[in-house]
Write a structure and sequence with these properties.
Elements: H1 2-18, E1 27-34, H2 38-51, E2 55-62, H3 64-72, E3 79-81, H4 85-93, E4 97-108, E5 110-114, E6 130-133, H5 139-150, H6 154-157, E7 161-164, H7 167-175, E8 181-185, H8 186-190, E9 196-199, E10 208-215, H9 221-231, H10 234-242, E11 246-247
Parallel strand pairs: 1-2, 1-3, 6-7, 6-8
Antiparallel strand pairs: 3-10, 4-10, 4-11, 5-8, 5-9
Length: 256
């Protein structure tokens, strides 16, 4: 009797296990995004995943120039948010970005940051060392060089400029005292409690635009378009506004 009871119990356990549905497999969405978006986009990602539990978002942060090269070399990505309209437009013209799902999404500004204060933008030629992003691959670095040239400072500081792989590295160099000053986006400076910032005349550099778009080769178009549409919601926009970005009015328009 005892043996029969154990067999019956075992059968019931096996039957119960067999009746359980396996956990739902999540779709993994890969986003390539400018390093300056890190904190904001991580928060938006969390909000999106709450509303879309079947989707897991993974983000590859880096300089826009590096991300562009990765995409052109075949690196997997479903959506891109760039810190450079020219780089993004080049990808679009080559057919990498969906023509129907791309927009000018965010705006930003340049600031000069220092760890100790006292040094002003006009005094940069007196600095021991300064830092900007590599102009050829880091949009913030290209804007910074443009501003320095506009003010007639570039030739005086080029030899003592430390070039960084992205804006966050520039910020780190300033925070640690490795350089006297750096030029970053205003939103990056707001993420640090260790630096003081000085606005740079916006007339001295071009408009800073962050385009966003779905990759043409995505294998998860429905999910990628869902995230793209989520970027246009008030919930997502408020996150970026809170962190100092300007949300552009072209949320429903396509990049030319």
């Amino acid at each position: 009797m005892h043996r029969n009871y154990l067999l019956l119990l075992l059968c019931l356990v096996l039957a119960a296990c067999g009746g359980q549905a396996p956990p739902e497999k999540k779709t993994v969405l890969l986003i390539s995004a400018a390093a300056s978006l890190k904190e904001s986009l991580q928060e938006v990602k969390s909000e999106f995943e709450k509303e879309n539990p079947s989707i897991e978002v993974r983000i590859n942060f880096g300089s826009t120039g590096a991300l562009q090269k990765q995409i052109e070399q075949g690196a997997p990505a479903d959506l891109m948010i760039s810190a450079s309209k020219p780089f993004f437009t080049e990808l679009s013209n080559k057919g990498y970005i969906s023509a129907s799902h791309q927009m000018d999404y965010l705006g930003n500004e340049l600031v000069m940051v220092t760890a100790g204060g006292g040094l002003q933008f006009k005094d940069l030629p007196k600095a021991r060392k300064i830092s900007i992003g590599i102009p050829e691959t880091v949009p913030a670095g290209a804007y910074a060089k443009e501003a320095l040239e506009y003010h007639g400072i570039w030739d005086l500081v080029e030899a003592k400029t430390v070039f960084a792989k992205d804006v966050r590295q520039v910020l780190s160099y300033v925070e640690t005292g490795n350089v006297d000053a750096g030029i970053v986006y205003r939103t990056d400076a707001l993420q640090s409690q260790k630096v003081k910032q000085e606005n740079i005349n916006p007339e001295s550099y071009g408009d800073i635009v962050y385009p966003a778009g779905v990759l043409e080769r995505t294998k998860h178009r429905k999910e990628a378009e869902a995230f793209y549409d989520f970027l246009k919601t008030d919930k997502a926009k408020q996150v970026f506004k809170k962190d100092g970005f300007a949300v552009l009015p072209a949320g429903d328009e396509h990049v030319d």
